[in-house]
Amino acid sequence: MPTEELESDKRSSAAPASKPAGRRATLQRIGTAIAWFAGVGAILGGLAGYWSTYRTVTTELLAPPAPKPMTSQPSIVVLPFTNVGGDARLDYLADGITDSLSTDLSHALPGSFVVSRDTAFTYKGKPTDVRQIGRELNVRYALAGSMSANGEKLRVNARLVDAKAGAQLWAERFDIERNDILQVQDEVVGRLARAIGLRVTDVEARRSERERPKSANATDLVMRGKEISNRPSSAETMIGARALYEQALKVEPDNIDALAGVATTLVFEVLNSYYRTGNEQRLLEAEELLARTLAVEPRHLVALKASAALRRAQGKFEEGIAAAEAVITENPGEPWAYKEIGFSTMYLGNPLGAIDWFAKADRLGPRDPARWTWLDGQGHALILLGRDEDAVRSLRAALDSNPNTVGTYALLASAYALAGLADKSRAALAQYQKYHPDVTVGSFRSLAPVPLNLTTEKYRQQFERLKDGLRKAGMPG
Fold first, then answer.
1. Where does residue 352 fall: left (phi above 0), alpha (psi -120 to 50 degrees), or beta otherwise?
2. I want to staple 338 with a disulfide (CB 3.0 to 4.6 A). Which of 54, 360, 377, 431 is the partner?
3. Phi, psi dihedral angles at 85 (to 5 degrees)
4. Three-state DSSP class for 300?
5. CA-based nearest residue to 143, from 130, 156, 155, 154
6. Given a cut of 80, is residue 339 above it in pLDDT?
């Protein structure tokens, strides 16, 4: 066979063999690619599943919890006070007031929820939509305020807002001397904490009566009792408040707010001379209730306040002053404590020193529902000092603050008589005698806040002047 044919046969036999090999290689490459893509797809699918799981888990972990429905517990946030005067030196004072208020409101509103200062400060420098903040923090109230320098005075503006409705519930503006910064901070914080505590208590009590009129919940009952206690005092208000506190104790026998509430009403039923008998037993019961309260919560503000008044009623004036100082340690802006020091100081025979304490109380609480008590005490001290016209002004202001107070009419009758205003003295005495028709100058002191035999000799000598005024007014000897 020729060589040319042999080569042709070789090409012919080789060609069919090369085509299947090429297809197999191509198929292998395709298969490899498919496998690769399948692997990548599996990886991507796994990553997608992982990402989905990761996203679900992190969303659950990192997202803020869903707001819980509001309960009967009062809740409030103190938004950072703003410095609107441009004086950078006031920035730290504004922050200090915000910080301290967040703490002190917890004392002024026992059982309340106050948003932490760290959370509150996240809103510093931001526009304040109070309703949005209320939704984000799930609080019912927001306190917002500002401050600015005005010469030697510091002007403070504050407002309490219903964070749900956006309605303003309370507002106050006041000027204070710009001297000791720490003293300024204490005064602002104390004054605001007291005022806001009173206002929130009033609103919450009314809400409780409206939304839960038949509630047997101890918190609701205590809140209603506090609201009545905060009204201008009378026998009816004291008895009504005590009934609610006692009802709360039937539900929760160890409720310290209710224990302190009953004790407080008992003490002031004695100090306000609502009864002629049984007062010693009332004070003993109050002492036992206060001991139980303070054993559980040694810093309970209401119990500390009642303890100061109890010691005064018992004639233990030095102890009363110490107890009132403990209140001031907890809340330097509590006017009630300065009033108690004023009374005990007066009964120790120092009416001039007492007036300073009463004036301090009035500066801190010019709109306080208890204002009549320190105005009454101030009028009393002024009579002892022979400043009868000043005494008249103070006592008339006390009656304007609380027309239900009876003993103030006797003091006013004496002051009028000593000032030479006979007709007015007889008219004031007639008002007093409507409630105590048989009282004499000799028995009068047994009806006064502290019986004469419990006071100091120095005070008893000073008291002779007040008794002279009562005789001149027409009170039988």
1. alpha
2. 360
3. -90, -10
4. coil
5. 130
6. yes
